[in-house]
Amino acid sequence: MKFFLDTANLSELKQGAAWGVVDGVTTNPTLIAREGVPMEQQIRDICNIVDGPVSAEVVSTDVEGIVREGTALAAIHPNIVVKAPMTRNGIAAASIMSRKGIRVNVTLCFTVGQALLAAKAGAWCVSPFVGRLDDLGDSGMDLIRDICLVYKNYGFPTQVLAASLRSPLHVVEAAKAGAHIATMPFKVLDALFNHPLTDKGLDQFLKDYAKAFPGESSARQSGSQ
């Protein structure tokens, strides 16, 4: 599974990239607006930090506008994937852009039928929103499993990008469900590192080593100052 960060914040992206586990980025108009920087500039800066697919979303809603805006976004950097909405116009535009060789991420997917439309339109990936379905009492993970099954049945190359993941458990469940990509906020990626037994075990190892080799430990502490 590939890990994408769902953020437009450069500091978060730099930290994730430093860990060496971030494969790409997803953004949307809300995330871009939070940074207060024009979209083109912010997307360029993101592409300079993370060497992987970077989803940039259109704000147009008509076919011509989506294609025009998506083509302009794709021209910013070779790593750009254009996000288009799961609407009639979005699918029509996705089909046009896909035929032009532009990678498209069909976003705001909530049903298998919608995911089938995205695949038929040649989308590079589709983004089912797990957390938002859970909020309505539905099962977002069941949707991930069903889309993966249908895509496998028919050999669709469209990747399943599990979105709206809100916890480490969501990430693990998406992996078990077969999602190709998991996109998550920085805080969720950071939380994947955490377990109290890891902290306790490391603390004990260091204490035991310091007791056995007190001189070496003191030298290391002096060298770090």
Radius of gyration: 21 Å
| DSSP strand content | 15-25%
What is the terminal separation in angstroms?
Answer: 40 Å
* CATH homologous superfamily (4th level) name of the largest domain: Aldolase class I
Strand order of the largest sheet: 1-2-3-4-5-6-7-8
Write a short abstract of this structure:
With 225 residues, the protein is α/β, with parallel strands linked by helices. It is 56% helix and 16% strand.
Question: How would you describe what is shown here?
Answer:
By secondary structure, this protein is an alpha/beta fold. It folds into two domains: 2-194, Aldolase class I (TIM Barrel, Alpha-Beta Barrel), CATH 3.20.20.70; 197-225, no CATH class. It is built from twelve helices and eight strands. The protein has helices spanning 10-19, 29-35, 39-49, 63-74, 88-99, 112-120, 130-135, 140-154, 168-177, 186-191, 196-212, 214-223, and strands at residues 2-6, 24-26, 54-57, 80-85, 104-109, 125-128, 159-162, 181-184. The protein has an eight-stranded parallel barrel, surrounded by six helices. The longest helix is centred in the last third of the chain and has 17 residues, at 196-212. It starts with a strand and ends with a helix. The model has no long low-confidence stretch (mean pLDDT 94).
